[in-house]
Amino acid sequence: MHEHFKSLNKAERELVTRILTILKDRLPQDIVTVEVRYEPRPILRIRFKDGLAIDAHCYIRSQLRPSTLPLLESACREKRHAIIFTNFVSRPIAERLRKGKIWFADACGNVYIEVPQRLMFFTIGATPHKHYLERTNILTENGAKLMFYLLTHGPEIEATYRNIADDSGLSLGSVSILMKALARQRIVEGARRNYRIVDGERLLDLWTQAYLEKLKPKRFLGRFISLYRKDLSKLKEAVQKMKLSVGLSGELAAEVLTGYLKAQSVDLWVDLEEFEEVKTKLRLMKSQNGNIRVYTHFNLKALSWSPMDKIMPVPVVISDFIEIDDPRCLETVEELQKRYLQWTLG
């Protein structure tokens, strides 16, 4: 075993080994050879017979989801060469990645690698066995709540399990189980009251999956418009004057934190007990196509973990903005990470 192979968890090691075997079998060996190096994270080396060698940074994901794909695409584009290793790439995602010139290889045999004037290999349609997905209790509502705490307090965290449980709203047992699961995946390390997040990029990716699929949908109260119409700057001013637990997220929050775009919509987080008062003060009216989406808080302490008053914490803003799936998303998300979550950049 390579000395850096231990930088991966067991599932990742098995996935890399499986995909490398597929690539060696599928790629034309009379033209190229492939190997995986560890520096310490895996690098796929493609060596052509004339001596040219290309090193591609490997992004390992157990699953690819549309909700988190923009972040992953952005990370890949930051590298000169990059490839996604995963268990399964569906046909729509495969076509999207190919269109974006982003390489991928999965454990089922679906592959896209293109080196202009040298190599073009694209095969899709292979389907997975039913048991290919590794079940994990991290991608749950409780998992989202714990990862939210870690992202807003990391990368160095001084807290006992009891402290984390009290602040995240989880039971002591849930915190223990989830922290051990994150440790097994080499995302968090440490003991007692001193913990360190060692893979912030992976943590943010898992948080976004769990948050958008398990946590956020349950908090939805409806779509609204207000008498401010599309002038969200006035709505923001009204929220900032309120002495209520209201937080802005999504496009409007991203605009406030980065100044990168002109917001057209907003996600509004409220305390359920204050919702009627918020509706009255902001003059909200329910509308199926409204540009104001309202949610009830999953943690009332969240607003105190934000870099700015009346703005939701950055992990929430990033995930709410990603969900919009707007072309403006990538640059803004990158800027949010650079300013507030630098340690989550790969």
CATH architecture group name of the largest domain = 2-Layer Sandwich
Largest sheet: 7 strands, mixed
Percent of residues in β-strands: 15-25%
Could you report the average pLDDT, rounded to the nearest whole number? 88
Write up this protein.
The protein is α+β, with helices and mostly antiparallel strands and about 350 residues long. It folds into three domains: about 5-125, Trna Endonuclease, Chain: A, domain 1 (3-Layer(aba) Sandwich), CATH 3.40.1350; about 140-215, Arc Repressor Mutant, subunit A (Orthogonal Bundle), CATH 1.10.10; about 220-345, Beta Polymerase, domain 2, CATH 3.30.460. It has twelve helices and 15 strands. Strands 1-2-3-4-5-6-7 form a seven-stranded mixed beta sheet, with helices on both faces. The longest helix is centred in the first third of the chain and has 17 residues, at about 10-25. The protein is globular. The model is unreliable at about 130-135 (pLDDT under 50).
